[in-house]
Structures are given as structure tokens and as C-alpha cells.
Amino acid sequence: MASPVASSIVWLRDDLRLDDNPALSHAVGLGLPLTVVYILDEESPGIRPLGGAARWWLHHSLTSLAAALAEAGSTLTLRRGPGSRVIRDLVAETGAQHVLWNRRYGGPERSLDAEIKAWAAENGIEAASFQANLIFEPWTITTGSGGPYKVFTPYWRACTASGEPRSPLDASARLPSPAVAGSMKQAGSDALAEWSLLPVSPDWSGGLAETWLPGEAGAHSRLEDFLDGPAQDYGTGRDLPGMEGTSRLSPHLRFGEISPFRVWHELRRNFPREATPDVGIFRSELGWREFCWQLLYANPQLATRNYRPDFDRFEWQQPTAAELEAWQQGRTGYPLVDAGMRQLWQTGWMHNRVRMAAASFLVKNLLADWRLGEAWFWDTLVDADAASNPANWQWVAGSGADASPYFRIFNPVTQSKKFDADGRYLREFIPEIAHMDRRAIHEPWNQPDVQAYPAPVVGLHESRERALATYQKLRKDQ
Ligand code: FAD
């Protein structure tokens, strides 16, 4: 039997792209036969299993990645199991001397990577990691006393003062092939269909497929469309759910189909002098993504524990099953909340302003624990992100970092009159009230012809007072 030749493994995780992929570029530089693997890891301790909408996305993203790799002369190996075992198996099968990946920042993911690095060091294998998915890695931006930032504005000031982010690396047109004939066994792969990532009976993914094109090509065309249009007026457009005023890059960034470095530099190229404040506002939204990750890095339990421990004594109420279902299904009787929750169910995405209003309704008007809402979003968002989802839920609840003060309670009627004045967004998602005019549609309960649409599940005034009283109690008990 021929002895194994040197080879390398690139382990792709939240970086399903060829463009600006430092681990892949490093492998190309080594010039050795290359195995590119994606591992569906639902077994390593603490790693949060993907929700339903994200599983749908992953299936399609991997399909697109496999095609792109094939075009570049490589293949995608799919394996399922605990990351450390799978990597060790692959090294044994291929004789690889280099294992390369781009870094992740969640607690369990970092422990797993550390375990593999330690094993590799003991066995004389190079395990190297690279920066790809965050422009500002959490440990590089710290306060004067060396700790993590708790407030966004000074955090972002420190980031932007730290110098221009590195330029993105172009994708290599050719990747080393996975095996050298006769000398290295090519690693076997699972069939993607065996992973059952797509929903069946019922298949609820029709609206997702109509809305999205998962994969690197889809990500780049979203960015181009954004730069050609909405970016010019982002400061105003981003608040209007009835129009395409934002980039809709979130699921692509979540799965790493586009690099934040690429987005940053494309903005720079398209708006060289930053003639408008809109570009700065958009860039600071990318900053919120980075901020959420540095919060998760410093607080690995962000999805389960209050960031502010005083909230451990907050008296959340268990909503009734009917109330919770009304919220989940978009039947609360408040059109902006309902349009948002229906948009989420149909497309796997919700406009940011509406996310804030829908989340506020659950945690303040229904007084439900933010973890209930976080879990629902985790399951239904295509961009469900281990950092941004809990950080934003805690922001809305008041228990988070730099949070909106608890006493600021979004009024869904005022919000919809202000940000969807003509009711275009409400009409798109709530056919029962689509016939109403721009004045009536925000408060349909005042209309005679509203039978098909539910009455409000709670009164806004009483529920607001109840929330404020509960918060006062927390403050008094301090
Ligand atoms: P754009 O306005 O085009 O912004 C560009 C990018 O900046 C986004 O793609 C996203 O990566 C980032 N970004 C923008 N706003 C935020 C923010 N507030 N926090 C963190 N990053 C931000 N975003 C997620 O990516 N995943 C989540 O799971 C998630 N859950 C959320 C839950 C709640 C309750 C709320 C209020 C917000 C949540 N967000 C989440 C943040 C925000 O709503 C989405 O990032 C945004 O709506 C995505 O649309 P876009 O790509 O068009 O954003």
C-alpha cells in the first residue's frame, strides 16, 4: 500500500463561501491535496442545534457551496457527528497534516476548537485558525481597563479608531483537488438528503424559497442590489417596513456566505467619500452585529441568562396558551405585530423595526419572559444568530447590554402610523384588513367590517400599566 502523501483539511463552519476565506486561501498556498469538509454537529456539548428555518437555509447553502467547489476543481465532504471525533477520523482516513478553519466565537464552539488544537499539537499536526467572520475580534477591542465594552457607542468608536479593516481575499479560481490518484484515499461523504434538513409534512418552506437565494451568489447579488439602490437612502429607508430599505444580508452574513470585510470594502468602493451619513449608519449596523458577538464572547450564556442579573427577580407572567399562539401566529389584533409575525412565518425574516415592536409586545404587553420569544425566533428566522438573537431580545426586554430602558414600551399603533403610514406593509401580510383605508387600517377594531380579524388579545393601556408596575417593583426591591 502506498504511504499517505501530505494533505490538508479545511473545515468550513459559519463561512460557507470561497471568497475572502482565509482558511481556504492558506490551503491553496500549501498546495497539498485538500479535503473540504462541513460537519453537521448536533452532539458536541453546548452547541445549539439549528432551528427549522436555518436548517432549510443550510441545506440550500451547502448545495450551492458544493457546486462552487466542484467548479473550482474540489468537492465538499459532508460528515455528521461531534466535531472533534469527525476531524480525528478524517485525519486518520486522509493522512492530513494540516487542519485549517476560520474562527467562531461562541463558548462551546471555542472549547471544541481548543480541544482539537490540543489533540493536533500532541499528534504533530498543524491546526491553524483564521479571522474571517468578524472584522473586530472580541479580544482586540477592550475598554481602558481591559474588559469588554457594555455600551455600543464607545465600543464602535474604539472599533472604527482601530484602523481600516484588512482587504478581502479574492477567491482562488482553482483549488487543490481532494486526492492524488493511488496515494491518498478520498474521504467518503454523507449524502445531503440523508441529513433531512428540509421540512416535510407539512412543507412550510414555499415562502422561504420565493424570498431567498441561499449561497454565495445570492449573497453577492443582494449586496449589489443594495448598493445600487437602498444604500443611498438607508438612514430613512431602513425604518420603513413597507419598502426594501435595508440590505437583507442577515442570513447570508449568518452563514458566512459573504464576508463582512467584503461588505465593508464594497461600501468604501461605492461611496468613496462617504458623501451621505447613510453609509455611516449602515456601517454601524454591521457594528451592532460585531457588538452582539463580543457580548456573547464575554457572556457565553447570553441566550439563557439575563445579562443584567437584577432581572433574575423580574416577575414575568406565563402567557396563556391562547396569548402565546396569538403572538406566534400573528393574531394578536394589533396589525403591526401581526404583519411582522406573519412575515416571519412566511419568509423566515422580519423587518428590524417590526422585530422590535413584536418583541416588545411579547415581553411588555404580554409580560412574557424574553426567552420564550428568543426561542420562537431561533426556530423561525433564517438569520437566527447565536449572538444577535439573544442580544437583541435582551435589548428589547431591558435586561441586556446598552438596553432600551424597560419603561420605553413600543406602542404598535403609534409605530405603524409612523413607519407604515399608508398601510402598505400591513396590507401585504394581513389580507383580512387589506380593504381598509390608510387611516382605518392601523386600528381595525374601530371598524364595522372587521369580523374576520381578531379583536386585540390585551388592551394596550392596561397591559402597559401592568408592565410598568412590575418594573417599579423590581426597582423598589433593589
Ligand atoms: P440591514 O439593516 O441591512 O443591516 C445590515 C446588517 O447589519 C444586517 O444584515 C445584520 O447582520 C446587521 N444588523 C443590523 N441590525 C442589527 C442589530 N440590531 N443587531 C445585530 N446586527 C444587526 N439579526 C440577526 O442577524 N439575527 C438574529 O437572530 C436577529 N434577531 C433579532 C431579534 C430581535 C428581537 C431584534 C429586535 C433584532 C434581531 N436582529 C437579528 C437584528 C436585526 O433585526 C437584523 O439583523 C436585521 O433586521 C436584518 O435585516 P437586514 O440584513 O436587511 O439589515
From TrEMBL:
Keywords carried by this UniProt record: Chromophore, FAD, Flavoprotein, Lyase
Residues that hold FAD according to the record: Y234, T246, S247, R248, L249, S250, F282, D383, A384, D385
Q: What is its EC number?
A: 4.1.99.3
One GO biological process term is:
photoreactive repair
Question: Cofactor(s) for this protein?
Answer: FAD; (6R)-5,10-methylene-5,6,7,8-tetrahydrofolate
Return the broad EC class: lyase
Instruction: Quote the protein name from its UniProt record.
Output: Deoxyribodipyrimidine photo-lyase
